[in-house]
Amino acid sequence: MKKIKTTLLTITTILCMAACQNEGDYKVIRKQVLDRHDQIMMDGEKAMNDKMMLDTLALSGLAKLKAQQPSLDTAAEHQEIKRLTKKLDDADERMNDWMHNFKTDVDGKSNQQAVDYFNGQKTKIAQLDSLYKALLKEAAVYLQKFNLKADTTMKSMDHMKM
């Protein structure tokens, strides 16, 4: 019995020491943040494509749709398009602010300070990711209302189909 207690105490001590010493490698966390950023940038491109489609819809598409659907409330649709494009612009602005304020250099910081900083950035970039995903879904639902689809490479607005 004494041998079991001693073994358990030794294992517990080793685990506690490992946990205290293992604060994480900031380089791993920084890479996770940068990788997530790269993924979000692709969503940002999709969001800007959606914004261009919304702008085109507002400028000329609604008039064409009004001719096909006389009951269409184009004033209300313009307001909805304006609301969605503002949300897309705001997300883009938030991403730009994050990129402007993000620092990869950790000179003068301890490993723990760097780990804490990059964990905080990881949280911020996760929030941006969620925002973009929600906005892309919202824009897709709105565009689908008019049977609009965009080619993901979208070289020109000719890819917009009604």
Written description of the protein model:
With 162 residues, this protein is mainly alpha-helical. The chain has one domain (26-157). The protein contains four helices and no strands. It has helices at 2-21, 26-68, 74-101, 111-145. The model is unreliable at 16-21 and 151-162 (pLDDT under 50).
C-alpha end-to-end distance = 78 Å
> Largest beta sheet, briefly?
none
Q: How would you state the average pLDDT, rounded?
A: 85
* Unreliable stretches: 16-21, 151-162
Return Rg in Å: 25 Å
Instruction: Please write the string of helix (H) and strand (E) elements.
Output: HHHH
Domain module count: 1
**Which structural class best describes the helix and strand composition?**
mainly alpha
In short:
This protein has 162 residues and is mainly alpha-helical.
Chart the SSEs and their pairings.
Elements: H1 2-21, H2 26-68, H3 74-101, H4 111-145
Helix pairs in contact: 2-3, 2-4, 3-4
